[in-house]
Amino acid sequence: MDLGKVFAALADDSRRKVIASLAADSEDQERACGSFDLPVKKATRTHHFRVLREAGLVVQRDHGNGSTLRLRRTDIEEHCPGLLRILVTERDDQAGLGDSGSPGGPGEGRTEP
What we know:
By secondary structure, the chain is α+β, with helices and mostly antiparallel strands. 45% of the residues lie in helices and 12% in strands. Strands 1-3-2 form a three-stranded antiparallel β-sheet. Helix 1 packs antiparallel against helix 3. The protein is globular, with a radius of gyration of 15 Å. It starts with a helix and ends in a 19-residue tail after the last helix.
């Protein structure tokens, strides 16, 4: 896993959102590529998924006219311990969910050093 490719892939908000969504699923289930709420056209989605695949963050499987993504959690945790937790926390903070997963939880109102 090339850290330069990983961080370049995660520099984009849409790709970070995809990885954070996958990381939030502790069961690591495959997820349909069309299920991600990204405000971009299909061609741009395809590009984002390719970048994530080439960075080694996801595995993509094609199923007829659709495809699914699965997070490479074990590989990511081995090479970048704690990265997925940071991405999920960032996603939750942006959504106003804080640490408890609900608005007004313990993480709300916390300040960064």
